[in-house]
Amino acid sequence: MSVAENPDNVTIPKPADHGFNLITPFKYLDKPDLSRAVLLVLNQSLVGMNIPQLWSNTKLHVCADGGANQLYEFFEEDEAARSQHIPEFIVGDLDSLTDETRSYYESKGSIVIPQLTQYATDFDKALTVSRLYFYSEEMRAKVQDYKNIDEHDGLAQLESEVQNPQPGAEDIFVYALGGIGGRFDQTIASIHQLYKISEKYKYIDLIFITSSDTVFLVDKGINYIEYESKGLWNSKDAVPVCGLLPLGSTKVILNTKGLKYDVTDWESDMLGNVSSSNGICGVNGVIVETTEAIVMNIVVDHHTVN
């Protein structure tokens, strides 16, 4: 078990072995085809985020209940911009959605889908809408015909009709705004979602974006976290801060290439070693090999994002 310090910039090529997981948490900034990308707005302040940029590089925009209030308030001083950022769907038990917000977005064409069941969170319901929307044209039409969706758990009933795509199907990228920070129980619920989605829906890439971080799950095995350049998402820091956080139930053994402090055969768990306040040195990517899934956060400077 060892630690090695790297210079601020190192080039780390993709692993020679083809059996690695490719993770692209900043794909929305590379401006490729993001026709299967979702911006999912949760009920947490959007201050400090570049909403117009995130919006323009995603195909579908879904607010989870009070997330619509946050979006509405974000543009409170710019009605012209507000009217250009209309979510396709607002979904949840609607206990937080204000009448003013609902009336405004419905008048602009948003589909509001009440789902009153308490056996799923508003985040779950918004994710279900996203999955159904991209599943097939037939299922998309059923979701858009919202008046026929049972208000208690109609989305769950629709989801029971679909199956997971075959291996190799095109991924859905879900960029969730908020969910990390704020109330601690909601943060833990978001971390739970990372693990649950990774296990249940291998074709969904869930990435949380906050005012300071990008947070995602690094799966068991060899992973290459790829990006166009560090400056694309953080030009302020020569070595953007990152953390490898063993928030699962099992001790992990880590091997990394491209971090400020690379580790070899390094045991990590919540009662032992934790690699927080590490840094990204890889010019275009880093390698993280782990024996079990682990949460990774990378500090982002949203003023960099154009």
UniProtKB/TrEMBL annotation:
SMART domains, per the entry: TPK_B1_binding
Molecular-function GO term, any one: kinase activity
Alphabetized NCBIfam families for the sequence: thi_PPkinase
Stretches assigned to coiled coil: none
Catalyses which reaction(s): thiamine + ATP = thiamine diphosphate + AMP + H(+)
Family: Belongs to the thiamine pyrophosphokinase family.
Stretches assigned to the Thiamin pyrophosphokinase thiamin-binding domain: 221-294
Protein source organism: [Candida] railenensis
Pathway(s) it belongs to: Cofactor biosynthesis; thiamine diphosphate biosynthesis; thiamine diphosphate from thiamine: step 1/1
GO biological process: thiamine diphosphate biosynthetic process; thiamine metabolic process
Protein name, entry field: Thiamine pyrophosphokinase
Key word Nucleotide-binding present: yes
Pfam families: TPK_B1_binding, TPK_catalytic
Organism lineage: Eukaryota, Fungi, Dikarya, Ascomycota, Saccharomycotina
E.C. code: 2.7.6.2
Top enzyme category: transferase
Gene3D superfamilies named in the record: Thiamin pyrophosphokinase, catalytic domain, Thiamin pyrophosphokinase, thiamin-binding domain
Keywords: ATP-binding, Kinase, Nucleotide-binding, Transferase
